[in-house]
Amino acid sequence: MISYYKKLSRFAARHMAKRWLPLNKNQGVVSFSFDDVPASACQLGAALLERYDARGTYYVCGGLTDGVEQGQQCHSVEDLRRLIERGHEIGCHTFSHTNCAEESVDFVTKDWRRNRDFFKQHQLSISGFAFPFGAYDLPSKVAASRVFSYNRITGGGTQIARADLHALGAQSLYSNTTTADTILELIQQTANEGGWLILYSHEVSATPGPWGTTPEQLELALRLARQHSCKILPVNKAIDFFRTE
Ligand SMILES: [Zn+2]
C-alpha cells in the first residue's frame, strides 16, 4: 500500500506543479554540477572547468562542511568562498542531506532554513536547489518551488525544447557507470537540438568511488561540449540565457 502510494506520489510529482522554461535558442548548453560537495570537486574540479573557461554549480549541505563523506574530505567554507569569487554558483542541497520524499514537508522546510542560515552566517547567497538522492514527491516539489528559484532532480538525460524549472533533469557523470559513448551521444543531441544537458557528480579523483568522476572523464565532457560549440554555464546562468529575449 505504501509503495503504491509512493509510486502514485512520484507520478504526480513528475507530472504536476511544472513551470516550463522554453529552450529555443538554437544553441546547446551544458551545465556541470557537483553535489554534497567533496573538496576535490571545489579544487581540482573547479580548476579543470576554469581551464575550459567554464564555471559550475555546487549544491552544498552545510552539515557536511569540513566533514568526511564516503571517505572523501568535504568542502570548507574557504572552498565555497573561492568558488563564488571565481564565478561558480553555490546552491542548496538541504543541510542534512535529507531525503525529501521520505520526510515531512515541515521537517524538510526546517532543514532548508537551517542550510540557508548556514550560508547567511558565512555571507554566502544561494538561489537554486538540488534534491538529495534525486528524491522528491509532490508536496516537497511544491514546497521547494516556493523557496527556490529552481530545483534539480536526477535522471532524465538531456532536456530538449523545454525544461521544468521545478524539476530540472540531470545526467550522472560517474566514471564507473557513465560511458564515453553516453557522454558523446548526449552532447551531440544537446548541440544538434539546442537542448540543455545538466551533468552531476560528486568527487573528482583519480580513484573515485561509485558516485565520482575522474579528471579524465570530466575533461572529456568539457572538451566534447566545446568541440560541439555548446555553451557551458552554471545552472542559474543557463536559465538566464534561455530566458533572454
Ligand atoms: Zn547529495
Q: How would you sum up this structure in a few lines?
A:
With 245 residues, the protein is of the alpha/beta class.
Structural overview:
- The protein is α/β, with parallel strands linked by helices.
- The chain has a single domain (about 20-245), classed as Alpha-Beta Barrel (TIM Barrel).
- Helix content is about 40%, strand content about 15%.
- The chain has helices spanning about 1-15, 40-50, 75-85, 105-120, 140-145, 180-195, 215-225, 235-245, and strands at about 20, 30-35, 55-60, 70, 70-75, 90, 130, 150, 160-165, 170, 195-200, 230.
- The strands form 4 sheets. Strands 2, 3, 6, 10, 11 and 12 form a 6-stranded parallel sheet that branches. A two-stranded antiparallel ribbon has the order 1-9. A two-stranded antiparallel ribbon has the order 4-5.
- The longest helix has 17 residues, at about 105-120.
- The model has no long low-confidence stretch (mean pLDDT about 95).
- The structure holds zinc ion.
- Zinc ion binds near residues 35, 36, 93, 97 and 132.
- The site of zinc ion has 5 residues, from strand 2.
Class by alpha and beta content? alpha/beta
The tally of helices reads: 8
CATH superfamily heading: Glycoside hydrolase/deacetylase
Detail the poorly predicted runs: none
Highest-level CATH class:
Alpha Beta
| CATH architecture grouping | Alpha-Beta Barrel
Give the ordered list of helices and strands: HEEHEEEHEHEHEEEHEHEH
What is the domain tally? 1
* CA(first)-CA(last) distance: 48 Å
What is the average per-residue confidence, as pLDDT, rounded to a whole number? 94
Q: What share of the residues lie within helices?
A: 40-55%
What is the makeup of the main sheet? 6 strands, parallel
**Gyration radius from CA atoms, angstroms:** 17 Å
**What are the distinct ligands in this entry?**
zinc ion
